[in-house]
Design goal:
This protein is an all-alpha fold. It has a domain at 22-64. It is built from two helices and no strands. α1 (27-40) packs parallel to α2 (50-64). The longest helix has 15 residues, at 50-64. The protein is elongated and about 50 Å long.
Length: 65
Amino acid sequence: MTTQTSNPAQIDAALDVPPDPREPMTAVQQERLRELSERAGEETVTDLTVQEAAQRIELLEAVVY
């Protein structure tokens, strides 16, 4: 049995970086928010960041389901 050790030079640091907090929400998030907002009878918010959209989706899923 061999053990593999990680070589720090081979680790991609970009994979462990959180998204830019100012990055606008993705098209997938926008569509999901639209669907959930309609089900909840709320207005769809379209100017959210990725993080804000993720939080809003989580909140609406808790309300709708």
